Structure formats: structure tokens, C-alpha cells
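User: I'm putting together notes for a lab meeting next week and I want to include a structural view of one of the chains we've been expressing. I don't have a solved structure, so I'd like a prediction I can at least talk through. The sequence is below, exactly as it appears in our construct file.
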Amino acid sequence: MSRRDMLAAAAGAAALAASTATSARAKEEPTFPGWIDAHSHIWTRDVAHYPLAKGQTVDDLAPPSFTAEELLKTAAPEGVDRAVLIAHHTYYAWDNRYMTDAAKKHPGRFRVVGMIDDTGPDPAAQMRELLPKKVTAFRITPRLRGADKWLTGPGMEAMWKTAVDTRQSMCCLIDPSDLAAVDQMCAKYPDTPVVIDHFARVGADGPIQASELKALCRLARHKHVALKISAYYALGKKKAPYLDLLPMIRQVLDAYGPERCMWASDCPYQLVGDHDYRGSIALIRDHADFLSDNDRQQLLRNTAQRVYFF
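Assistant: Thanks for the context. Below is the predicted structure for the 310-residue chain, given as C-alpha cells.
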């Protein structure tokens, strides 16, 4: 056996061991029968244990509190018993501890979309270190480094390569103008799992633009790209019951298939003003009459479970 073959065999054995360990951890967790909210932020006023970034204080939190327990209490009446927690760089920068501690405190309830600095030392190693802490994806966005730099550099390249082995998705918080860059990256790394947040904010400026929606749907040709059907409070007419968004939802479902789409609330922002949690899930559960029962199972649980809960 050549040295290359030996290294390949060792890498394969390590990957199998990691996969087996991950499966064993998942089996140890309690199971839950309800729906999954694929996108929610949380934060706490306990700044002694979880200090806020950039010298912020509890007075800067808006809303003043939205803890893991408050999220579970908000979601429970609608049959949602699990959630994917999303890093909030504004409050915590690169510190994922409040989310990972919540996942540890509530076994089986949460998975985490963390954030790491791809310009820092060895982001690939950081990805692997966070996986046992239920960090099964990472948020990436041009809002931190600019549209011309956010997908460049050796650290970002390493993240996309590592994600093929770890199954940790690259979760893109983007605008429609960023879709072309993500498209190119998906072509370069076709086996990397990718999630697009909030329809790529198509409709954030008002009426749905056909060209932007077409670009979003074109991304579906990459088989490992999934999409969050979420943040209704910020799209289109921005008014419950959000029926104006149904044509867009139908079009993206035709492009991606329900097995690559997932519902999410984007709490606590979905709870501001006249918006509420029930209005968000009701659009999929009660109003989208073109969905089959199986479609709803995919959107409200199965896709998020496959993508995040492993």
C-alpha cells in the first residue's frame, strides 16, 4: 500500500469514527414529535456569564430578553418543540457559548448555527471542535467583510472544504445581489451543504422582483443547497397573514422541492409589533393549500431535522 493510500485509508477511518460518534450522540438524546423552528436567535441579560460585544449593556438588547426558555415557551403552543439557534454577531461577535450551553442544558431541543472568524487561526479546526457541542452549521455573511471579500481567502476556502466532511452547512445571510457569488462558490464546492436564509431577502424592499426570484431558484440546481422559508415580517407587504408571499413560496418549492426547504420564524424579530409566532407557522400549516401533508412534514420538520439534527 502506498503512502497516499495509507493516508486515504486513515482519513476514511477517522471520518467513519466521527460519523459513528455523532450518530451515537444523537441516539442518546431524547426524541421529540413536534415541529422544528429552523431559525431563531436567543440572548440573555446574564452579561456576567455571557458578556456582550463592543461594550454593549443590557440596555442595548432589543427586545430586552429572549432566552432559550422564552423561545421554547413561545413555540410550544404551536406544536414546535425544537429549534435551530442562530448566532447573533451584533450582541456576541464570535462567542457561541450561550447557544451551545443552551443546547447542553436542553438535550435534543436545539442545534446551533455558530460563527467563527474565517480570517483567524485554523477555522477548520474550530469547526470540528464545535461539532460535538451541537454546532452543525455556520453563519456567513457579506455584512461583516463586504460583498467583494466575504467568500474569499484561505480560511473561507477551508471552511467550505471542511464542511464536506463534517456536514456542517454554510448558512448564508445574504441579499439578492449576493446570489451570484454564492452560485459561483457552490459550483466550486458542489458537495458542500449550503443553506440560504430568508429567501435571500427577496422582497425585503417591497414587491417580489421576478429577476431576483429567478436568481434564487437558479441556485437550486446545486443539489446540496437548501432554503429557509422564513422572516415573513420583513418581506413583501410585511403584514399578516402574509398571503402575498404564497406565490413566491410555491415557486421556490417547485425549484428546490419541499425536501430542501424548511420553515423558520426568525424570532424574536417575528414577535415585534403586529407580528406573532402563530402568524408565521400558520402560513405554512394553515394557509398554503397547495401543500400536501407530506410537503408540510418536510417544511415543518423533516428538512431541518436532516440538515441540522445529526
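A couple of points you could mention at the meeting. Residues 1-22 have pLDDT under 50 and may be disordered. Residues 3-28 form the longest helix (26 residues).

User: Perfect, that's what I needed.
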